[in-house]
Specification:
heterotrimer; A: mainly alpha; ABC transporter involved in vitamin B12 uptake, BtuC; two-stranded antiparallel ribbon; 69% helix; C: mainly alpha; globular
């Protein structure tokens, strides 16, 4: 059971988590805790599916999924950046909105499937050279294009955060907005941009579920993955590179219950379903035991910034 | 005196916050190559005025001219464009970044940051202005003095030639203060202007060329330093004649009421923060504690209140060893500890609660049963407000709305009200104007008369030498000496603060 | 600068209420537009919602039955929130309370009704309290982020109940359909005035929590701890114990909800027993600013909203999800309106006019 096929499946299961985690990392780096990840994923999933079904174009589907996620994030951004509303409740409201929205729009999509032509776009593509490495090649480099997009996104985000001036500015905003403001960084613009980008990534994560992973439309297609992503952000220390590892680890945990069915291990599938959640708890406790500056959250997370605060 | 042309002119500046008029048609000007001090009590409008010059606030009315041209400053960026940069009391630095990264923040650097180029440019600036900054050090590893120098470098790098320093010496040692003054003089030589907000008279007299005094939102006077003196300046600040001397009354008796023996403590990173501390305290004496910020004062205070874990040692109060007991037990035995941190409200007070609930904090243990008794606390609150002349719209007002001085009065009033026999107070006059300071010294002296032993931790040597009977100096977690306050000199204390052990122990 | 924001000085209660009502009206207008977009008459729909929730005695009873768990859960959640302990785990605490109560209902139904219900009540409390103490411990000891842990525990609790429902507790008499057996009459809450006596529990708990938070020493300590950890230490408050105590109470109260729902409403244990109340209660707690009297009001309003929404589902053929959409829109507007209670928007008209002229050219 612990075979190449298992690891490969773990990667696939981890991709929606990866996108959502990357999206939330960007959002939190700007100082905003957006608990609406589940909602944005659902919005991206349903819109991606609807557009894909109607236009039969995978690219349009992905584009609109990202836009849907970003629009959800826009509501959150307007509330928490401009109106300085409570971030936790705003995020929860977004999740409720996204769930309702997805259920509403998705009603007419129940049981629908994409055409073969559409699915062909997401077939496995082997990367020449890297894909031929024994074991690792099959596990990492023989996937659909969405997976590769995930790798690229994570790396690009890592470079952005740690090697560019703009990434530096973003980190400053999340740590000490007063310092960033004094450095004449346009705080509002940065926050909006990155929160929306975060939403777009979450939307893409949801789209992967509805377009590739499942790939029919189901109610509650995300099944709490959005919340696991929020935990993964902490687990990966707000670092896009580490998020890759975390997402794949949890992808594995996600599918392990199903895989163990019919094997010698006679524990109910439902108990195994608890695995990702219990693992998250264990990991979070371990992280908090390790306390270090490098793994700390952005200092100004969840605090609205106001220049004339007396 | 060189011929100095006017660089900055602020005319008729008015600013309101809600119903409070912070600056009322203020006028202010600074010449090129001048160090200009802005003096005034808390709430006089010094910080507000400078915040408007540096773009943090926007004036409701008035005009600002830089080098003769009118400018409209609506953000810190505008201010820098006009050449104005402000160094705040709370540094605008990001801890997890290096000096270089902090300086480059917000700068247009193209896609990738070209660190080497910028470093060379910065070296040149550091030479010119004689600023010593380690560009690759992380800010969270730096001392306060280093951070301040970094802030200055950062501001100059962005083109500031008018530097505003807001209470810069509040957190510095005497030696670091001298370094800062050297930097300020260097800037003067380079034809920059420095505006220096302070309430420390002696520093103002040392470094300023001209002094502007503000009071209650209005400009009162601008004087040449040579032609004035602390007495006159204080009177202008306060509005009436003031007796500046700190009264010291003789210590009460020879009874030892408090003994600390071989007290040692270790922090979370396993570093020793208190090393073998031993001292006695007498009934009715004020024992001062001098030291550079971060020498262990906070840990000592907390240990003596049961709030810090002790590795070894004894704390003997009225014959009983309290080491290892809970904070509650310290409180019930008559030891009161009040510590004013830099942000004032962090410890001991709850900003969002009113005076009554804050008083309740110390009292609620005493009432029987599971309910809190607010009525007696409210009565107490009214008493304290009256006794200490606390300015507040009412006892139900959240204390965050009170001014700094009044908040500190509430804290001190509450501590004193529990009639402690040992009062440990740290930085009780932090950031307060001279008037309120004197009032608080009077209060402490009254307690002293009653036989209360007072451990007084402070940063400014003047109050320590004026108020205390003996002064204990702590450096790097250990006591480097205990001297008679009447005979001590600033140099002596300064040396001990740096770690030199006093050979001749007095008393 | 065309406009800027200034902090407002303290705002009166009257204004606060007006702004709140204004936001509700704005939400109704926006939702009304959405309904019009679906070719429905918004007024008809809203009136139907009211009819569906309070239009008859029976419907009022149903609405109250729906409000009860909201009220009690928000009370429980508020205790934790007062301490700034973000207990998102009410769902899980309710489930575990339901689980514990159900255990006794299913295995001890020979006991006299009063005794059995009493035991189930305490079992519910304990179930929720245990589920609350776990994250409390981690947070108190090692500072672990409670938001995520309580959230994860919701899922663990849910999977546990699913496991029971599909596995060891599956009712053999249910023709293969995965469900747990119905409780004996003994284990069911009696009714008073047409509603199960959970309403009495709700009233009692409201009074209890009100006095607890505002007048008791422990409540005071919780409030101080929520405001400032350092100050709490300085006041001699035992932080570890306070966090544990508060979460035992918070989780336990939510656990009681599980008992009430299992015994009074469903008369069995199912995985859907919470109906999302654990999350809705967080919104209620926030809307009510952690004050019991306002939370009761908010709960009733929400109950009317939800009941009304499920009524119009069949009457107008609107998807069940529209209720959530409406809920979310209302929330967005209330969240946004909070801005106007704290800040004042100053528009620099001359500058704004100048800018628009420039853009127009």
């Amino acid at each position: 059971m612990i075979t190449v096929a298992f690891f490969k499946a773990a990667i696939i299961a981890g991709i929606p988590l990866l996108f959502a985690t990357l999206g939330e990392i960007i959002t939190e780096k700007s100082g905003h805790l957006n608990l609406g990840v589940e909602g944005m994923m659902l919005m991206g999933a349903v819109i991606g599916f609807q557009v894909g079904y109607t236009t039969n174009s995978p690219l349009l589907a992905l584009l609109f999924a990202a836009i849907a996620g970003a629009l959800g994030a826009l509501i959150y951004a307007f509330l928490t950046v401009s109106l300085r509303a409570n971030q936790v409740v705003s995020g929860l409201a977004l999740t409720i909105f996204g769930t309702g929205f997805a259920g509403f729009v998705g009603k007419s999509l129940m049981g629908m499937k994409m055409t073969d032509q559409f699915n062909y776009f997401f077939r496995d593509l082997k990367i020449p050279g890297l894909g031929d490495i024994p074991y690792l090649g099959e596990i990492f480099f023989n996937h659909d294009i969405f997976v590769y997009l995930g790798y690229v996104t994570a790396i690009v985000l890592g470079l952005y955060l740690y090697n560019t001036g703009k990434g530096l500015n973003l980190r400053a905003i999340g740590e000490n907005p007063a310092a960033a403001d004094a450095a004449s960084i346009p705080i509002t613009k940065y926050k909006y941009l990155h929160i929306l980008l975060g939403g777009a990534l979450c939307g893409l994560g949801g789209a992967y579920l509805s377009l590739v992973y499942v790939p029919v439309w189901q109610e509650n297609i995300t099944a709490g993955r959005g919340w696991i992503a929020v935990a993964l952000v902490i687990f990966s220390g707000w670092n896009p590179y580490k998020a890759i590892a975390g997402a794949f680890l949890f992808g594995g945990l996600d599918i392990i219950g199903f895989r163990l069915q019919g094997t010698a291990i006679a524990i109910s599938q439902y108990i195994f379903d608890m695995a990702p959640y219990v693992a998250t708890i264990v990991i979070l406790v371990l992280v908090s035991l390790r306390k270090s500056k490098k793994n700390a959250p952005p200092k100004a997370l969840s605090e609205p910034y106001f220049r004339e605060e007396r | 005196m060189a011929d100095r042309s006017i660089y900055v002119e602020m005319k008729d500046i008015t600013k309101r916050f809600g119903s409070v008029i912070a600056t009322d048609h203020m006028n202010f000007e600074v010449a090129k190559g001048e160090i200009h001090a802005l003096l005034g009590e808390n709430g006089a409008g010094k910080s507000t005025l400078m915040n408007m010059l540096s773009g943090i606030y926007i004036p409701d009315s008035g005009h600002i001219f830089i080098d003769g041209k009118e400018v409209r400053i609506t953000s810190p960026r505008d201010a820098l464009k006009a050449g104005v940069g402000m160094i705040h009391q709370h540094f605008k630095l990001v801890d997890v970044l290096t000096s270089l990264e902090n300086i480059l923040l917000g700068y247009k650097t193209g896609l990738f940051v070209r660190k080497k180029e910028q470093k060379i440019k910065l070296q040149q600036l550091m030479e010119k202005f004689q600023l010593d900054v380690d560009l690759d050090k992380y800010v969270y590893e730096m001392s306060v003095g280093e951070k301040q120098t970094l802030e200055i470098l950062k501001t100059i790098y962005r083109g500031a030639r008018i530097l505003i320093l807001d209470e810069p010496t509040a957190v510095l040692t005497p030696q670091e203060t001298n370094k800062l003054f050297k930097i300020m003089r260097r800037m003067k030589e380079q034809s920059c202007s420095v505006i220096f907000i302070s309430h420390k008279m002696n520093e103002v007299m040392e470094i300023a060329d001209r002094i502007t005094v503000l009071r209650k939102g209005k400009t009162i006077a601008t004087l040449e330093k040579e032609s004035t003196n602390p007495q006159e300046l204080t009177e202008l600040m306060v509005g009436r004649p003031v007796d500046l001397s700190i009264k010291r009354i003789p210590a009460l008796s020879d009874n030892i009421v408090f003994q600390v023996r071989n007290l040692s403590a270790v922090n979370e990173e396993k570093v020793e923060v208190l090393k073998n501390i031993s001292f006695d305290m007498y009934e009715g004496e004020i024992l001062g504690v001098a030291g550079i910020a971060g020498s262990g004062q906070k840990e000592l205070c907390e240990a003596l209140a049961g709030l810090y874990p002790i590795k070894q040692g004894e704390i003997i109060f009225k014959g009983e060893n309290l080491a290892g007991k809970s904070p509650k037990e310290f409180i019930t035995r008559g030891i009161s500890m009040s510590f004013i941190p830099e942000d004032r409200l962090g410890m001991g007070l709850v900003a969002n609660m009113d005076i009554v609930d804050n008083i309740l904090l110390k009292q609620y243990h005493h009432s029987k049963g599971i309910m809190v008794q607010r009525k007696p606390a409210a009565a107490k609150a009214k008493e304290i407000v009256k006794k200490l002349e606390i300015q507040t719209p009412g006892i139900k007002e959240p204390i965050k709305n009170l001014s700094g001085g009044n908040i500190q009065k509430v804290l001190l009033g509450r501590e004193l009200d529990s009639h402690p026999e040992l009062l440990i107070t740290a930085y009780p006059v932090r950031g307060l104007d001279i008037n309120t300071c004197l009032k608080i010294y009077d209060i402490l002296n009254e307690e002293k008369k009653r036989g209360v032993a007072i451990l007084y931790i402070a940063e400014d040597l003047d109050s320590l030498m004026g108020l205390c009977d003996r002064i204990m100096v702590i450096s790097n977690g250990e006591i480097t000496g205990i001297v008679d306050a009447r005979k001590a000199t600033k140099e002596q204390l300064g040396l001990m603060m740096l770690g030199n052990k006093e050979v001749h122990h007095a008393v | 600068m065309q406009f800027r924001i200034v902090i407002k000085s303290e705002i009166g209660k009257k204004k606060r209420v007006l702004i709140f009502l204004g936001s509700i009206i704005a939400a109704l207008i926006v939702s009304g537009l959405f309904l019009a977009f679906l070719n429905l008459n918004p007024f008809q729909v809203y009136i139907a919602m009211l009819q569906g929730s309070v239009g008859s005695v029976y419907r009022i009873e149903q609405t109250i039955i729906y409000a009860i768990p909201l009220i009690i859960t928000s009370l429980g959640v508020a205790i934790a929130f007062k301490m700034k302990f973000w207990n998102i785990g009410a769902e899980g605490q309710i489930l575990m309370g339901a689980f514990m109560a159900s255990y006794f209902a299913l295995n001890y139904s020979f006991l006299p009704r009063f005794i059995l219900l009493l035991i189930m009540f305490f079992a519910g409390f304990i179930g929720g309290a245990v589920w609350g103490i776990i994250p409390a411990f981690f947070r108190a000891k090692w500072g672990t982020n409670e938001t995520i842990i309580t959230l994860m525990m919701n899922y663990v609790a849910l999977k546990w109940v699913v496991y029971l429902q599909y596995g060891p507790w599956k009712d053999p008499n249910a023709f293969g359909f995965p469900k747990i057996a119905n409780f004996a009459k003994n284990a069911v809450l009696p009714e008073l005035f047409g509603v199960h006596i959970g309403w009495i529990i709700a009233v009692l708990l409201t009074i209890f929590v009100y006095f607890f938070l505002n007048r008791s020493k422990k409540g005071f300590e919780i409030a101080v701890l929520g405001e400032s950890v350092n100050t709490a230490r300085y006041a001699g408050i035992n932080i570890f114990r306070t966090i544990i105590f508060a979460m035992v109470l918070s989780g336990g109260i939510c656990g009681i909800v599980g008992f009430i729902e299992a015994s009074g409403v469903e008369q069995t244990l199912t995985k859907d027993i919470t109906g999302g109340v654990g999350y809705t209660a967080i919104i209620i707690a926030w809307l009510g600013a952690l004050k019991p009297q306002w939370m009761v009001l908010a709960s009733l309003l929400f109950a009317i909203l939800i009941q009304g929404s499920s009524y119009i589902q069949s009457a107008f053929g609107i998807s069940a999800y529209s209720a959530q959409l409406l809920e979310a829109i209302v929330l967005f507007f209330v969240l946004g309106s909070d801005f106007f209670t704290r800040y004042k928007l100053i528009i620099d008209w001359p500058s704004l006019l100048r800018r628009t002229k420039e853009n127009g050219k």
